[in-house]
Design goal:
The complex is a heterodimer of chains A (776) and B (288). Chain A has 776 residues and is α+β, with helices and mostly antiparallel strands. Chain A has three domains: 196 residues, Alpha-Beta Complex (Aldehyde Oxidoreductase, domain 3); 322 residues, Aldehyde oxidase/xanthine dehydrogenase, molybdopterin binding domain (Aldehyde Oxidoreductase, domain 4), CATH 3.30.365; 148 residues, Aldehyde oxidase/xanthine dehydrogenase, molybdopterin binding domain (Aldehyde Oxidoreductase, domain 4). Chain A is built from 19 helices and 30 strands. Chain B folds into three domains: 47 residues, Uridine Diphospho-n-acetylenolpyruvylglucosamine Reductase, domain 2 (2-Layer Sandwich), CATH 3.30.43; 112 residues, Uridine Diphospho-n-acetylenolpyruvylglucosamine Reductase, domain 3 (2-Layer Sandwich); 110 residues, CO dehydrogenase flavoprotein, C-terminal domain (Enolase-like, domain 1). The termini of chain B are far apart. Classes of the chains: A alpha+beta (776), B alpha+beta (288). At the A-B interface, helix 3, helix 8 and helix 19 of A face helix 12 of B.
């Protein structure tokens, strides 16, 4: 058989057959005997005092097992993650906010949990919710972030004046001088609208008493089982070994399933109280109401520049919507830290205020703070290019951080690991035939057609620590079990990791099983988020495989009666240097490892666990070229071409990288064109169903033309940078830039997202009313 | 997303269905493909105590062509219409419209009759039924009656189907001579329903002039509506792009418009004109 390396090959996903055939298990597929079904009563007001809760009729309803309010479960009354304030790792200046999983005296957003019913089935539970009477005293609500910070606005918390949880600032260089001396300045107010994650699988939790530990086993649809375990243990006053958290198949998370939720605490507490299994499956309506949202910012951004396009200063004043309770207040500062983009300007003055409003909390959502930064930077670059009359490509090149400047310390905070921004840009421009497209655009404009070309060059931060882990056990048969601390929920690391094991140990991918998402079966880990799965989890696996290989080499040397120094690993076998026929496979080595007859200095068995704590974060980057045509009669946008060149460092699994890029582009395009969570002035959710909230469908996007460059990261042994979020980050500004470029003949320099046809049509109407001849 | 309790009946004949509806009066709702009713039940926007599932009544199924008309059973699914060769020959409009409804799963279950009886203001079929001058056949406690499409769509989510009645079939006359049709739809990006949809039928006389035309609008207002001023401006005329564009400017005159976060009333009013023009141009080209 010809030996083939698996790393770098376009292999199909090991996960897919069971997922496509529906033969695997999600939380709702587990139905232990005696399970009680939980329903949650949620606030119908955005802001109200609760003067009383009458559960008597619900308790009397046939089939109801128990009804609980917050008063019945006092142990739940403690801060949820991110609610601890500055002293416990929150943002500077933040005071601690207790998110009571069941509100007792006040609600601050529509959808906040107030009471819980456990019943024999979920229909009874749902019926019983209608029988609970809550005595609300409505309070004035504030929904809009710009209103929320004004004096006299309704206050969510007495201890948080002007609803301002914190102000994050970064000032470097001589910004005031840069603006005072600038040859040109541009300023643009931009939004970054609120989005919902809409994972295919909603959230769901099943907790059941565990006779082994005396605690609980909790099945939950999470990205981060170890952190949920710690939170539940803390809430219930138990130790970690008394809680086992399992993330079975998880149907997507996109960041919204990173941190534990009130429902995980409620289900766990009630399973303990009732001493029986309790299950809650989030409905899609609840998902839209009570799973955290992402983005939600308004920003005013200014650039100071020279006439040749050199940027000399950046200033921004940003309001970030935290919603009613802190869920991840560290997201908006990430926007500030990434405001350098791929550019070398040194004078920056950034202020971001985290603001509470009477809406569902915001948190991480694919990109988490970095898409906002890339959007602002890449949009204002185009505004500057338009002001200067310079091609947007040239403005960008003029300001690139040069390839010899890495590691590069940005004025906004992070130190970039490696980069060469001309590489993907050159490749994207060539693939798109940028000059040809510009010529075609000029011709079409002469015919009254509105073709637009959007170009973006961008980076982001990935590969967060603090660590991750892997255990590798070579079984006596020579097959391999890997347990990883990350928790894939669609990413496909069962495939990527099997490719790595296949190459490192000389086994078939089919002989490798990758176990994840179970605190009882995996070493301590930090979950899957922030494009860290391969970068951190994969690096931990690589280190662990190194240990396995070291011992396997010793065993092979013993079996081949050679010295370990004379053993080399070649084409999947351990062999004696210079002796092609003297080799041992992992099967031979495993048999020896478990024979009980190896010398003491080698020892029995073949397994290892190791951890990887990254020395620094990684900064993947890329360049996109997008082509659109706007129909001025209706404002409809046709997405004609999408060229995306990404650099995520070394690639292990090209097919999976393509998948991440395709999905990521689609998600970012959807923000540009369709998606938006809308609340009305009273804080009622207008986009409360998928009839109103537009998730992208396949026919909304063109066939993607994507490719890559490879610039390894020095911060991990794989050289990987991460690809989970990069495409999303580039595609939102790329599409908006293209649409605004199409509208340039109307004198339009910017439009806020989402670029619904009506908004575009209205902008054209307004432009024509101002200058009727402009478009002719 | 969890419906309330209901009694469920699955009659096997129209007579049985009618007597069940009579027996339960206003408590009962007819269930066909379920693609409008079940979401309402799951959101508890409707909680009828009784569902009469007509899905097993054989006599309501099928598409038949006879005597210069096509009769479509109320239970014909959107997919039945999409893939009916008979229908495609005479009414490409039916096929074209079916393909822009929802997705294949919706089309495999949702029914033509259900969509008409539900009278969703954003449904596609009401505009098509009006443009093709369809006749609805109803059976109730007092026997059968027919209602012209022009009288069928009464108001928002209200059709001429009376309590106790079942829509059994829809009859569509096949126009004589040269004719063309077109359905032009501006879809909502979330629901896929029509923000504005316009169906047009153009019949050409021997002299090449527009002998008759019917234009119907859905999505824009509380109910599907004919654009009669536009029709009148074209009848008897030699059709040109300019004339159609002028006539389309009158589409939606006097209509009430709906507005939402995706499309305001004034934007819908504008779209009605644009899509009327597109539908008429399409129908004219098909007729030639």
């Amino acid at each position: 058989m010809v030996y083939m390396r698996q790393v770098g090959a376009r292999v199909k996903r090991k996960e897919d057959p069971r997922l496509i055939t529906g033969s695997s298990n999600y939380v709702d597929d587990f139905n232990p005997r005696g399970v009680g079904h939980l329903g949650i009563l949620r606030s119908v007001y955005a802001h109200a005092k609760i003067n009383g809760i009458d559960t008597s009729a619900a308790k009397a309803h046939p089939g109801v097992i128990a009804v609980f309010t917050g008063a019945d479960v006092p142990e739940l009354d403690r801060p949820m993650p991110h609610g601890e304030g500055e002293t416990a790792g929150g943002q500077k200046g933040m005071v601690g906010i207790v998110t009571a999983p069941l509100a007792t005296d006040r609600v601050r957003h529509v959808g906040q949990a107030i009471a819980a019913v456990v019943a024999e089935d979920r229909y009874i539970a749902r019926d019983a919710l209608d029988l609970i009477v809550v005595d609300y005293e409505p309070l004035d609500a504030v929904i809009d972030i710009e209103e929320a910070v004004k004096d006299g606005a309704p206050q969510l918390y007495d201890e948080v004046p002007n609803n301002t949880a914190y102000t994050w600032t970064r000032k470097r260089g001589e910004v005031d001088a840069a603006f005072a001396e600038a040859e040109v300045t541009v300023t643009q107010r931009m939004n970054n609208q609120r989005l919902a994650a809409i994972s295919l699988e909603t959230r769901g939790v099943l907790a059941q008493p565990d006779p082994l530990s005396g605690g609980l086993t909790v099945y939950t649809s999470t990205q981060n089982p170890h952190s949920v375990r710690a939170e539940i243990a803390r809430t219930l006053g138990l130790s970690e070994i008394e809680i086992r958290v399992v993330a079975p198949e998880v149907g997507g998370g996109f960041g919204a399933k990173i941190s534990s939720y009130p429902e995980e605490m409620i289900v766990a507490a009630l399973a303990r109280k009732l001493n029986r299994p309790v299950k809650w499956i989030e409905t899609r309506s609840e998902h839209l109401l009570a799973t955290h949202h992402g983005r939600g910012q308004i920003n005013e951004i200014s650039l100071a520049a020279k006439r040749d396009g050199t940027i000399t200063g950046l200033r921004m004043r940003c309001l970030a919507d935290l919603g009613a309770y802190p869920r991840d207040a560290s997201v908006p500062p990430l926007t500030g830290m990434l405001m350098s983009g791929v550019y070398g300007y040194q004078n920056v003055d950034i202020e971001i205020r985290g603001v509470y409003t009477n809406t569902m909390a915001t948190g991480a959502y694919r990109g988490a703070g970095r898409p906002e930064a890339a959007y602002y930077v890449e949009r204002i670059m185009d505004v500057l290019a338009a002001e200067l009359g310079i091609d947007p490509v040239e403005v960008r090149r003029k300001n690139f951080i040069p390839p010899d400047a890495f590691p590069y310390k940005t004025p906004t905070g992070p130190t970039y690991d490696s980069g060469d921004y001309n590489k993907p840009l050159d490749k994207a421009l060539a693939a798109a035939d940028y000059q040809g497209q510009r010529a075609e655009q000029r011709q079409l404009r002469a015919q009254g057609r509105y073709r637009g070309i959007g170009v973006v060059t961008f980076t982001e931060i990935c590969g967060f620590g603090p660590f991750d882990s892997a255990s590798v056990r070579v079984e006596p048969s020579g097959k391999v079990t890997v347990a990883t601390g990350i928790s894939p929920h669609g990413q496909g690391q069962e495939t990527t990791f099997a490719q790595m094991v296949a190459d490192e140990l000389g086994v078939s991918m089919d002989d490798v099983i990758v176990v994840h998402g179970d605190t009882a079966r995996t070493p301590a880990g930090k979950g899957t988020m922030g494009s860290r799965g391969l970068v951190v989890g994969g690096s931990a696996l690589f280190k662990t495989l190194g240990q396995i290989k070291e011992k396997a080499t010793k065993i092979a040397a013993h079996l081949l009666e050679a010295s370990p120094e004379d053993i080399e690993f070649r084409e999947g076998k351990f062999g004696v240097k210079g002796a092609p026929d003297r080799t041992k496979t992992l099967v031979d080595i495993a048999a020896a490892a478990y024979s009980g007859s190896l010398p003491d200095e080698i020892g029995t068995g073949l397994e290892a666990t190791d951890f990887f704590a990254p020395p620094g974060t990684t900064f993947p980057f890329g360049a996109d070229v997008v082509t659109v045509e706007v129909n001025p009669e209706t404002g409809e946008v046709a997405l004609l071409r999408y060229v995306a060149i990404d650099d995520c460092g070394r690639v292990i699994s090209p097919l999976l990288v393509d998948g991440q890029v395709h999905g990521g582009l689609t998600q970012g395009i959807a923000q540009a064109l369709f998606e938006e969570v809308v609340y009305d002035e009273q804080g009622q959710l207008v986009t409360g169903t998928l009839m109103d909230y537009a998730v992208p469908k396949p026919e909304y996007v063109p066939m993607f033309e994507n490719d890559r460059t490879e610039t390894p990261s020095p911060h991990n042994p794989l050289g990987a940078k991460g690809i989970g979020e990069l495409a999303t980050i580039g595609s939102t500004p790329a599409v908006v830039n293209a649409v605004v470029d199409a509208l340039a003949p109307f004198g339009i320099r910017h439009l806020d997202m989402p670029l619904r046809p009506q908004r575009i049509w209205q902008a054209i109407q307004d432009a024509q009313a101002k200058a009727p001849a402009a478009a002719d | 997303m969890i419906p309330g309790e209901f009694e469920y009946y699955a009659p096997t004949s129209v007579q049985e269905a009618v007597s069940l509806l009579q027996q339960h009066g206003e408590d009962a709702k007819v269930l066909a493909g379920g693609h409008s009713l079940i979401p309402l039940l799951k959101l508890r926007l409707a909680s009828p105590p009784v569902l009469v599932d007509i899905g097993r009544i054989q006599e309501l199924k099928g598409i038949r062509r006879q005597n210069g008309a096509v009769t479509i059973g109320a239970l014909a699914t959107h997919a039945d219409i999409e893939f009916s060769e008979d229908l495609r020959g005479v009414f490409p409009l039916m096929h074209d419209t079916a393909t822009v409804i929802g997705d294949p799963m919706v089309r495999n279950l949702g029914t033509f009759g259900g969509a008409l009886a539900h009278a969703d203001p954003a449904g596609d079929w009401p505009a098509v039924a009006l443009a093709l001058n369809a006749t609805m056949r109803l059976t109730g406690p007092n026997g059968e009656r027919t209602v012209a499409a022009d009288d069928f769509f009464v108001d928002l989510l209200t059709s001429a189907v009376e309590p106790g009645e079942v829509l059994t079939a829809v009859e569509i006359p096949v126009p004589q001579g040269k004719y063309g049709t077109s359905y032009q739809k501006f879809s909502h990006p979330a629901s896929g329903y029509a923000v504005v949809g316009v169906a047009a039928l153009v019949q050409m006389g021997a002299d090449g002039a527009c002998q008759d035309c019917r234009v119907a609008i859905t999505g824009a207002g509380p109910k599907a509506t004919r654009a009669t001023a536009t029709e009148d401006a074209l009848k008897g005329q030699q059709l040109t792009e300019e004339l159609i564009a002028q006539a389309a400017e009158q589409a939606g005159n006097g209509m009430d418009f709906l507005g939402d976060i995706f499309a305001s009333e004034s934007y819908r009013a504008h779209l009605v004109k644009v899509f009327t023009k597109r539908a008429l141009l399409g129908a004219m080209q098909a007729a030639q």
